[in-house]
């Protein structure tokens, strides 16, 4: 007999499943699978919320410190802009008052921060154009350069690390490892000039033109040389080789790897996450600041129209809005790399979120 206020479940899939299982308080398999998926996403969500809050505080601190340093630094953007037009200090002060520029640094910082929160990065003093549009225009070139250099670094370092961890020190991988350490010790600007002299001036393999004047069909050929120089000379190749080799050697000696090898299962399938994926994301996230710093030098050497070259020109012209915008974008990119590393780690090992909750992440 069915209760008058309750709909009959006879013949429904849930009723049949309950009749077969003999349980009435347990959710059906569909709901159980959804609960498992939600529980798997919970650690990642906790990490994302915590790291995004830390990112906001970090960006606030970076903006404050850089703004104070620029304010205390010698030179004035209006003095550079009005050089030769307003010789007297009183005339320049009158121009500042007419433009409504605050005199105190904290009023200027609060005004700039308010505009930033509304999505306004300010106007470039050097070009008179919006800073955000200028950064987007040159930032794509820098992103192309840095991502390409990371790919070159991994293509060189990962095979050497894999062969060294599996085969040990052999006559084949020993010279390649030594070469990786030697190349990483070379200054990137010196390596860039040597590459230009050898491959562009002596052998004529790559065109000796700037990225702006390169034609569309040869743009990829021009970009290949600075990408290879930054990927080889940023000092990351040797560290990736050393770190991946140590982590893979440690993972290969674990008991579960021995068990998988004894069962005839795929060893790399079991060792990929802990031995390669997590160490690779960790080392890449830690080297993003060095790659961006190397990009500034490479862009100057190869006349690459990127964010580093824009920062160099803005520093020479005392273009404070452009400098602040570039600093905020660069800090965001560095923080996103660190956030990606933490998300990958928690996705591979969800227990890490519970183990480190309240204790913070060790850098």
Helix content: over 70%
Work out the number of β strands: 0
CATH architecture of the domain at 137-319: Orthogonal Bundle
Q: What do we call the CATH homologous superfamily of the domain at 137-319?
A: MetI-like
Compute the separation of the termini in Å: 64 Å
Task: Walk me through this protein's architecture.
There is one protein chain. This protein is mainly α. The chain has a domain at 137-319: MetI-like (MetI-like fold). The protein is 73% helix and 0% strand. The chain has 15 helices and no strands. The chain has helices at residues 13-21, 29-72, 77-81, 89-99, 105-117, 131-167, 173-184, 188-202, 219-233, 237-252, 255-263, 267-301, 307-316, 320-348, 351-355. Helix 8 crosses helix 12 (267-301) and helix 12 (267-301) runs parallel beside helix 13 (307-316). The longest helix has 44 residues, at 29-72.
What's this model, at a glance?
The chain is mainly α.
SSE blueprint and pairings:
Layout: H1 13-21, H2 29-72, H3 77-81, H4 89-99, H5 105-117, H6 131-167, H7 173-184, H8 188-202, H9 219-233, H10 237-252, H11 255-263, H12 267-301, H13 307-316, H14 320-348, H15 351-355
Question: What keyword list fits this structure?
Answer:
single chain; about 375 residues; mainly alpha; MetI-like fold; 15 helices; about 0% strand; flat; disordered N terminus
């Amino acid at each position: 007999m069915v209760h008058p206020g309750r709909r009959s479940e006879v013949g429904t899939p849930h009723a049949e499943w309950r009749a077969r299982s003999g349980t009435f308080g347990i959710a059906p398999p569909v709901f159980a699978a959804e609960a498992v998926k939600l529980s798997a996403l919970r650690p990642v969500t906790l990490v994302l919320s915590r790291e995004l809050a830390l990112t906001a505080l970090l960006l606030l601190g970076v903006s404050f410190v850089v703004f104070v340093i620029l304010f205390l630094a010698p030179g004035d953007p209006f003095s550079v802009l009005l050089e030769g037009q307003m010789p007297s200090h009183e005339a320049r002060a009158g121009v500042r008052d007419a433009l409504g520029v605050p005199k105190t640094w904290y009023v200027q910082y609060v005004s700039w921060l308010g505009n930033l929160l509304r999505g306004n990065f300010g106007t470039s003093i050097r070009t008179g154009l919006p800073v955000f549009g200028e950064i987007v225009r040159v930032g794509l070139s820098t992103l192309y350069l840095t991502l390409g250099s990371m790919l070159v670094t991994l293509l060189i370092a990962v095979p050497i690390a894999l062969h060294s961890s599996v085969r040990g020190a052999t006559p084949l991988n020993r010279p390649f490892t030594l070469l990786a350490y030697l190349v990483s010790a070379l200054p990137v600007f010196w390596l860039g000039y040597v590459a230009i002299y050898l491959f562009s001036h002596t052998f004529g393999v790559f065109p000796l033109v700037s990225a702006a004047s390169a034609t569309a069909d040869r743009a990829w050929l021009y970009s290949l040389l600075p990408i290879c120089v930054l990927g080889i000379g940023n000092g990351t190749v040797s560290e990736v080789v050393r770190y991946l080799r140590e982590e893979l050697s440690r993972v290969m000696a674990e008991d579960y790897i021995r068990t998988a090898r004894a069962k005839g299962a795929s060893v790399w399938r079991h060792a990929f996450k802990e031995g390669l994926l997590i160490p690779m994301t960790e080392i890449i996230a830690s080297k993003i600041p060095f790659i961006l710093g190397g990009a500034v030098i490479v862009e100057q050497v190869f006349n690459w129209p990127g964010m580093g070259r824009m920062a160099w020109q803005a520093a020479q012209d005392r273009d404070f809005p452009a400098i602040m915008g570039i600093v905020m974008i660069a800090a965001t990119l560095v923080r996103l790399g660190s956030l990606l590393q933490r998300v990958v780690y928690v996705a591979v090992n969800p227990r890490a979120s519970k183990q480190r909750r309240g204790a913070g992440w060790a850098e």
